[in-house]
Structures are given as structure tokens and as C-alpha cells.
Amino acid sequence: MTMRAHRSYAATQRETSVSSAKPVELVAMVHQRLLDHLHTGKVQMTEGVDSSESFSKAIHLITTGLESCLDIEKGGEIAQNLAFIYDWAGKEIIRARLRRDPEMIQGVINAFVPLAEAWLEHAGQKDDTFAFKYLQPVLVTAKALSGNANGKAAGGMTPMLAAAA
User: Are 73 and 135 members of one domain?
Assistant: First the structure.
């Protein structure tokens, strides 16, 4: 299958999914697409490739797919908190692009993963492996900071033993 045919098939599949989805499923889909664009943009940024399209799509999903759908009157404090998160995320993506800082993008991803998981669960689409795709870089970084991938500090001791020594 050519790349063009693959894209056409994927677009048709997305359109079919969207047209038959319930509102809660649409919100879950928007969160998934948002995280996909953020992740792709982060990888592109790390590799020194132009990431502007991925981040533009992410900001567009935040402003038109999430933020514009909030009903502050009916949603009360929860809607206000989501509006704050969406506003922060859009600004943070722009700052990250200006600074070319993929870790700032990871911070936005980290903020949206629990939201996406909650919407997926609410839509009856809970996936215990969902977060791993987006949070794995954080886990790898945490392991690297703790000494090495085996959790051993210098001299073969675990970080707790090394601190006590």
C-alpha cells in the first residue's frame, strides 16, 4: 500500500469513527489525537526536524476541540480548571517551541495523560497500557537519574544503600 493510499484509508477510518461516536467518545478521541501530535512533535524537536505542523495541530485541538466546548456555567469549577489547563498548555507549547525544549512538551504530555485516561474510562474504553506510550520517556529519564537502568548507584549499590553509606 502506498503512503498516499494509507493516508486516505486512515482519514476515511477517522471520519467514520467521528461520525458514529458519542460526545464522550469524541472528547476521548480528541485527547488521544492531541497526545499523538504532542508526542510526534516532541520526537521531531528532539531530532532537530521541523515540528511546527505537529504542534500547530495540537494547539488547534486544544482551542477548537477542547477549550471551545467548555461550558463554564454548567461545568462550574471543573470547567474553570480545565480552561486553565488548556490555556496553560497552549502557552507552554509555544514557549517550548521558542526554546526548542522537548522536556517542556513532556510536561504538557504529563498533564494531559491523566485527563485522557479519565475520558477513555468515562467512554468505556479503559486501556491500562495507554499511558505507557506517552510516559515511557519519563520513566527512562527517572531511571537514568537514579544511577542507571538497573537502579544501581556507583559501586553496585541501590540508591538507598548508597545514600546510607
Answer: no
